[in-house]
Specification:
It is built from 15 helices and 13 strands. The chain has helices spanning 15-24, 49-75, 79-110, 114-126, 137-157, 160-172, 179-191, 200-205, 221-233, 263-282, 309-320, 339-348, 373-376, 410-418, 429-433, and strands spanning 213-217, 251-262, 330-337, 367-370, 388-396, 400-403, 424-428, 437-441, 447-458, 467-471, 481-485, 491-495, 505-509. The two termini are 36 Å apart.
C-alpha cells in the first residue's frame, strides 16, 4: 500500500533467485525487476487476500523451480550448493585481503612510508577492516599513529578548521580513545568559545554530515520539571483561528527535552549577538527593554507561589553555559513545529526563505516566536505516536519595532528590520485583539534553537454549547482545511483530523 508506479520497494527472496541472475548474466549487474499487476483471470480485477497470496506463492514456486533448473544447467550443481560455494569464496577473498593489507602495513610502518600508510588505511576503511574490535594489529597501530599526528598538529595550530577536520578524521579511524582526541576537543572548545558545559567529543561522534551537533536527552527530573513549569505558567486558554478548529488544550504535558549543542549555529548566533550589542551601544535611541513571559517574572504567572519564569530562565541559561543578555532583549521564546522540521532546524538553522509557510505572514516574511507555549502549540503537527514538538530558542530581539494596531503592513515590518534600525518586530495582538504577542526576526542568526520539547496535548472536556460536529465531505482527506459554519453563523476553518475518512464525523470546539 502507498507505492505508486515508478517507486520501488524491498522484498526478500530465496538465494536461488540470485543464482538465476548470476548464471544467466555472468559478470553483469542484474537490472531491477519489472513488476506487473496480477489480474484475476475471471473478473479482470486485482486479486486480494488469500487469492492473491495463493497466486503469488504459485508464481514464486514456479520461479524457484526455474532457478534450480538454470543453476543445474550452468554449473551442474544444486542452487543451495552454488550459493554456499559463492559465500565461501567471498569469505576467502576477505581473509586474503585482510592478510595482504596487514602485511603491507607492517612494511610501510617499518619504513616510515607515511603516504603508503595513508593509502593502505583508505583501503582498510573501504574493506571495513577498522570496524569493531577485530582490526588487524598493524592496521590499528597505523590508524592510531596517523590520528595522533593529525590531532597534535591541529592542537598546535589552534586553527578551528584543522581541529574539526582532525577530530572527524580520528572518529573515522576509530581512534577516539586517544588522549590527543580529548585534548583536541578541549582546544576546539576554547578557540570556538563554546560554552564550558558542551561535550565536544559527543558532538563529533554524533555529527550529521559536516555539522558537529549533539542532541542530548535531559534526564534530571528537577530540570525537566522546570521546562514543565515554563509551559504551565505561559499557558493561556485563548482560541485563535490558527487552531483551525482544534480545541485549546487543558495543558501541555512534557515528555522529553533534548538539549542542542551545535557549534556552527552557536558561533553565528554569538557573532550576531555581539553585533547587536555594539549597534545598540553606538545608537541607543528607540531601544526599550521588554518583559517577556518566558524570561521575566510577571504578576499573573506566580499566583500559585511556584517558581517564576525569571528564575527558570536564569537557571537554564547558566546550566547551558551562557547567561542571557537582557540589556539587549535576549530571551527564551517558543516555536511550534513538526518532528522533521525540529531536527532540520537544530541541525541546519531556520530558513527565512520558508518563513510564513505555516504561521502566516501578518508581520512579514520572518521567523515567528511566542512567549506562550499555548500559542506556539497552534503550529505543531502530531507525529505517528501523537507526540508534538516545540523549540525553546534563545532569541535576540534587540531594538524591537513595536506594533499594537489590529492591522499591520508586512512590507513596512520587513523594511524596518532589513533596512531600518530595528532588529525585530513585536506584534502585540494581546493588546489589539486579546490573543497573544508575537515576536518576529528576519535574520536566522538572531536565533539559537536551544531545546527540543517533546510533549502531548491534554485535551479539555468538550463544552456541548460550543461543540460542532463536522462530517468529512467527498474529496476531503486528513490534513485538508475545511470551511464550516457554526450554529451562531460564525465561519470557521477546521483541519480534517488524522484517521477521518469521507462520511465520518469529528467534533470541534469554537
Amino acid at each position: 500500500p502507498g507505492i505508486s508506479a515508478g517507486q520501488s520497494f524491498g522484498v526478500q527472496y530465496d538465494p536461488a533467485a540470485l543464482a538465476v541472475a548470476s548464471a544467466n548474466m555472468p559478470g553483469q549487474p542484474s537490472a531491477p525487476p519489472q513488476a506487473s499487476v496480477l489480474q484475476n483471470p475471471q473478473h479482470g480485477a486485482r486479486t486480494s487476500g488469500f487469492g492473491f497470496l495463493n497466486q503469488a506463492l504459485g508464481t514464486a514456486q514456479q520461479a524457484l523451480t526455474q532457478a534450480n533448473e538454470v543453476v543445474a544447467a550452468k554449473t551442474g550443481k544444486k542452487a543451495e550448493e552454488w550459493v554456499q560455494e559463492a559465500k565461501a569464496q567471498a569469505h576467502a577473498k576477505t581473509v586474503n585481503l585482510r592478510t595482504q593489507i596487514s602485511s603491507q602495513m607492517e612494511s610501510a610502518l617499518a619504513s616510515v612510508d607515511n603516504s603508503k600508510v595513508s593509502a593502505l588505511l583508505d583501503s582498510a576503511m573501504a574493506a571495513k577492516l577498522l570496524d569493531g574490535k577485530n582490526a588487524p594489529a598493524s592496521v590499528r597501530r597505523a590508524a592510531d599513529q596517523v590520528a595522533s599526528r593529525q590531532l597534535q598538529e591541529a592542537i598546535a595550530s589552534e586553527d578551528p578548521r584543522r581541529l574539526k577536520g582532525a577530530l572527524i578524521a580520528a572518529n573515522r579511524l576509530n581512534a577516539t580513545h586517544l588522549p590527543e582526541f580529548a585534548a583536541a576537543a578541549q582546544t576546539y572548545q576554547k578557540v570556538k568559545k563554546l560554552p564550558p558545559g558542551w561535550d565536544v567529543s559527543k558532538m563529533v561522534l554524533h555529527r550529521q554530515g559536516d555539522k558537529m551537533v549533539a542532541k542530548t536527552d535531559i534526564e534530571d527530573p528537577a530540570v525537566l520539571a522546570k521546562f514543565q513549569r515554563l509551559l504551565d505558567i505561559t499557558h493561556r486558554k485563548v482560541y485563535t483561528r490558527d487552531r483551525m478548529g482544534d480545541a485549546v488544550p487543558e495543558r501541555l504535558q512534557l515528555l522529553k527535552v533534548h538539549v542542542v549543542t551545535n557549534d556552527d549555529l552557536w558561533a553565528n548566533y554569538m557573532a550576531r549577538r555581539e553585533w547587536v550589542r555594539r549597534d545598540l551601544e553606538a545608537d541607543p535611541a528607540g531601544f526599550e527593554r521588554y518583559n517577556v513571559q518566558t524570561t521575566d517574572t510577571l504578576e499573573d504567572s506566580v499566583a500559585d507561589g511556584g517558581e517564576a519564569a525569571e528564575s527558570i530562565a536564569e537557571t537554564l541559561a547558566a546550566e547551558f553555559g551562557e547567561p542571557l543578555r537582557k540589556d539587549i532583549n535576549e530571551t527564551f521564546l517558543f516555536h511550534g513545529t513538526t518532528k522533521q522540521a525540529a531536527d532540520s532546524i537544530t541541525t541546519s538553522d531556520f530558513r527565512v526563505n520558508l518563513a510564513g509557510t505555516n504561521a502566516g505572514t501578518l508581520y512579514g516574511r520572518g521567523v515567528y516566536f511566542a512567549e506562550n507555549g499555548s500559542k506556539s502549540d497552534e503550529y505543531t503537527r502530531p507525529d505517528t505516536h501523537n507526540l508534538r514538538y516545540m523549540l525553546l530558542c534563545r532569541t535576540l530581539l534587540g531594538r524591537a519595532y513595536y506594533l499594537d494596531q489590529k492591522d499591520a503592513d508586512p512590507r513596512a515590518c520587513e523594511e524596518a528590520c532589513l533596512r531600518g534600525k530595528f532588529h525585530s518586530v513585536l506584534g502585540d495582538r494581546k493588546k489589539a485583539r486579546g490573543t497573544f504577542r508575537e515576536f518576529i526576526v528576519f535574520d536566522e542568526e538572531q536565533v539559537y534553537p536551544n531545546y527540543i520539547l517533546v510533549y502531548k496535548r491534554v485535551e479539555p472536556k468538550l463544552d456541548p454549547a460550543r461543540t460542532l460536529t463536522v462530517q468529512v465531505p467527498l474529496g476531503a482527506a486528513p490534513g485538508m482545511i475545511l470551511q464550516v459554519t457554526a450554529p451562531n453563523g460564525q465561519t470557521l476553518q477546521v483541519v480534517v483530523p488524522a484517521g477521518c475518512a469521507v462520511g465520518q464525523t469529528f467534533s470541534m470546539q469554537y
